[in-house]
# Entry
Amino acid sequence: MGTLGIGAAAERRAADFLKRAGLTLIARNYRSPFGEIDLIMRQDEVTVFVEVRSRARTDYGTPGESVDRRKQERLRATAEYYLQRDAEASNRPCRFDIVAITPSPEGERVEWLRNAF
# Structure
């Protein structure tokens, strides 16, 4: 499986994980001129923009640590673009979450970082 396939599989696992936690999927791979948001979800009245990160190893840091300032800026710009086009979502609070997936002795570890930045 190539990098794109691994990323898509991680996004599916993250979406399933968040759905089991009670969130509703709004969009996958939302694209704008500024970048892409992996998942847009809703939790109660909150729009949740989710960045999914998966790493086979953590030698160079955790998946969550890989969402640097530049990536955060692109995510914010893409979220603003989305909110300008969705009047209903623009009237609700929003937040940015990260779902980090790493291997563990049990198979894999899924970490949900709410309100990550």
Summary: Strands lie at 24-32, 35-43, 46-54, 94-104, 107-113. The mean pLDDT is 91.
